[in-house]
Write the structure tokens for this entry.
Amino acid sequence: HDFPIDPTTDTLSFYVVYICHFIKPKSVSSYLSGICNQLEVFYPDIRRNCTHPIVKRTLKGCKKLHTSIASRKRPLQRTELTEAFNNLHSSSSFDDHLFLALLYVGFFALMRLGELVFPDRIDLQDFRKVIMRDSFLADAEHLEFNLPTHKADRTFEGNRIVIKASSDRDDTVKIACIYVRERDSRFPGLPHLWVRSDGSVPTRSWFIRRLRCHFSDNVAGHSLRSGGATWLASLGVQVNLIQ
């Protein structure tokens, strides 16, 4: 194509467009990194050229043009929660009450699963992100607790999560209070709110295994958050309030 051999910003931009026709655009960043590693000895400016706005915007545009359809899990239905409540609320298992409390709190507070449980990888587990027992308050009208940080919390200020009580038989406030009373009698000295029967923080795999035992296929951790949002929309709640 009679392009100059020197990897200028234009040459790298053209390369991005070309290679995105053959591989996934999200992999191109790794290709550019490898190119810089191999050619920096001969072209000292190549790393600066790779981070030039033209190259970055070209890659961003290619990601939009060649995006792949996301495989999304279905949202949980409100009626499905009631079925799980009917099966588990009278159980003698402490872990069943924990799962039920996590299920309802995650659904009605539109929480991400990662905000409620630990990651499976030990190196990613950070106790500073765990919800503490002393932040939990509840009365007949509502429950609340402090979420130390979350995915969208860029300033690390945390948020106060509040769930209003309802007249439903499977009221989230009642379910959470039953769990907390049992938790306090078993583990009064542990600082974290969500505790398994062995005293550990519940993990993602632990929750997902139980989720798939009680619900049909095509559900995952995000099914709680999307299910709660869908339920609120069905009640006529404004989109901006749900957001």
User: Anything to note?
Assistant: Residues 25-39 form the longest helix (15 residues).
